[in-house]
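Fold this sequence, please.
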Amino acid sequence: MAATSSSSSYAVAVVLICLLAADGSCGCPGPTPAPTPIPAPTLTPPPAPASPSPVPVTPPPAPVTPSPGSGSGSGSTNGSSGGWLDARATWYGAPDGAGPDDNGGACGFKNVNLPPFNAMTSCGNEPLFKDGKGCGSCYQIRCVGKAHPACSGVPETVIITDMNYYPVARYHFDLSGTAFGAMAKDGRNDELRHAGIIDMQFKRVPCQYPGLSVTFHVEKGSNPNYLAILVEYGNGDGDVAQVDLMDGGEPTGAWRPMRHSWGSIWRLDTRRPLRGPFSLRVTNGSGRSLVADQVIPADWQADAVYSSDVQFDD
């Protein structure tokens, strides 16, 4: 009887773990430690006859996840006709919001509820977020009637601004309430949102920021020995693969590589105090670079925004 009771308790524990994992699959919470697995109870076998030991089952290797493409061409995705790939979509935050309560996210972008983001934002799981180097990438998304009767099938464009830590599919877009509802037929936005999770399709597309140039936000806490910069509004790829800096105190005029800090934020730590003006060289995921010459002035300040006069070609 003791063994039966222990087995029943273990089974209930496993069911509870599965339910909790399923419940946490939506939304874009910050990084949290992985839950400690509940060990299986040790059972004392009956004295005789001895039962053969169960054969351990070796799980199959995890499938290799194809990249949804880097570069601004929609044909850079693999597999589906027309460049479309299958994914699943959930949503989080307010039904008509931009996702996070602070209108930010794990990429470091600010005010994503306002233009040019316009709340058309999404978390991406790791093949989309790419440890932050997928931040700023643009994707067309759509859902069709077979996924839900309220789906319009009309493509909408979203920008990766956040990270999804609980994927429910190989590719998982945890959309803002606004972006999720935008895939619905007219007047059926709430009906689609009530589905909670749907099958969808996506493909990489060029980002377009009409009238805007590549912009740099000097992050709070920056000083002459620590400079952290958020890069945003790049046409084309939209993402950032590398940032290099040249400062006014560098006698050789050499470029110094910045380190990827998190999201779309790049940093430089130095013992020699940095002196403005600063020039920045930005390289996107396709390997294309542009130089914003002396974009940050000598009298720069932390928590300030500096717009360049350069932009990636569409």
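The first strand starts at residue 85 and ends at 92. Residues 215-307 form a domain with the Immunoglobulin-like fold (CATH 2.60.40.760).
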